[in-house]
Amino acid sequence: MSRDQRADDPAVLQEALGSFVRAFGLHQPETTPCGQPISVSEAHALGELAQEGELRQVELTRRLRLQKSTVSRLVGQLSHRGWVERAPAPDDGRGVVLRLTASGRRAARNLAEARRERFSRLLDSIPAHERAGVLHALDVMVEALDEER
Amino acid sequence: MSRDQRADDPAVLQEALGSFVRAFGLHQPETTPCGQPISVSEAHALGELAQEGELRQVELTRRLRLQKSTVSRLVGQLSHRGWVERAPAPDDGRGVVLRLTASGRRAARNLAEARRERFSRLLDSIPAHERAGVLHALDVMVEALDEER
DNA sequence: GGACATGGTTCGACCGTACAACCAGAAGGT
DNA sequence: ACCTTCTGGTTGTACGGTCGAACCATGTCC
Q1: Are the beta carbons of B60 and B48 closer than 8 angstroms?
Q2: Domain spans of chain B, in order of start
Q3: Per-residue pLDDT tens over the stretch B131-144
Q4: Closest of B116, B49, B58 to residue B83, by C-alpha
Q5: What's the confidence (pLDDT) of residue A2?
Q6: What's this model's pTM, rounded to 2 decimal places?
Q7: In A53-127, which ranges are continuous DSSP H helix?
Q8: Could you give the CA distance from residue B144 to residue B149 in angstroms, rounded to a whole number?
Q9: What's the CATH architecture for A27-148?
Q10: Would the pLDDT of A144 be above 90?
Q11: How far apart are CA B100 and CA B55, in angstroms?
Q12: Does nucleic acid strand D have an atom less than 7 angstroms from the CB of A76?
């Protein structure tokens, strides 16, 4: 089978993606692949907040692709750890604005460091000449997934 | 920042991978991304069995990268649905050999079809000239993940 | 002002996973 | 033969993330 034929076969994509998902340990979402005592969703939330500075909760919900109820509880946990603060949104009486506390920023930095460690190892295992291609491919897939819906 | 520098930065890989994971809906492992009423792990198990014909339970555990207790229950569910049969291993008094029933093979076919549907759409959203690259990238990552441990 | 949509919270339930304890069979040494 | 250790499976227990529905408050549109 030629390379182009393979590339047009959904089953091949499925197989490739399936293997990847399992290899990366995306079962057990309650432990981050980086070995940190924090759930995958919490880690994502922390990352988004660290990057954005401030975020409306509804926006976080959208980015995390979770239900609002789930995010509410998630934010509650982060707040309980003293990592995020909730403030009423200035322009919308219903909304909540989220912001990292100082300790939250510290946690985010630690997490980023651990992640860096983890992904450094992964990146090291990818042949140098493949790296750019892999990153590009991930972008392409995210775009495709966004477009699809 | 040049492309090669980006390619060597773990944070970039992290970001790309993170987005992808969320975009693909890898939260809620109890529903397969294909919209079938079956968990991701069950789907994987079904796929492995359909492909191999027969499989030792311990081997399935290895491939799914789960705990043996989890797999034991998983197999129990599949058996309860009438999709797999357990038989004592001929060469090892402890072992269990798994095999799909007729109805299990049918379920696997249906699942594969639904998956095909789903991935066809995804594939359609990926520009044709990117497809081979994406598939290759996934292979590369799985290899890297395997090597790493 | 009334109907409907939107952002958040709380409650209840579901389900997949891990860990530990346990059992039975295999393997290897003395 | 026997004892120890290892390995494949099962069961009990607990944890935790996610969802859906019900509910409230606020915003929006006619």
Answers
A1: yes
A2: 1-30, 31-148
A3: 888 888 877 877 77
A4: B49
A5: 47
A6: 0.77
A7: 57-64, 68-80, 102-125
A8: 9
A9: Orthogonal Bundle (1.10)
A10: no
A11: 10
A12: no
CB-contacted nucleotides of strand C (7 Å): 6-12, 14-21, 24-27
The CATH number of B31-148 is 1.10.10.10
Tell which residue, B143, B139, B67, B98, has the closest CA to residue A13. B139
CA distance A91 to A96: 10
Structure tokens at A145: 């997934």
Residues of A in contact with B35 (CB under 8 A): none
Do A119 and B3 lie within an 8 Å CB cutoff? no
Q: Could you tell me the distance in Å between the CA of residue A112 and the C1' of nucleotide D25?
A: 37
Spacing of A88 CA from C2 C1' in Å? 27
The chain B residue lying nearest A121, using CA atoms, is B148
Is the CB of residue A47 less than 8 Å from the CB of residue A110?
Answer: no
Which 3 state secondary structure label does DSSP give A30?
A: coil
Q: How far is B14 from chain A (nearest CA, A)?
A: 7
- For the sheet containing B96-100, what is the strand order? B54-56, B96-100, B84-88
Sign of the Cα pseudo-torsion (B72, B75, B79, B81, in order): positive
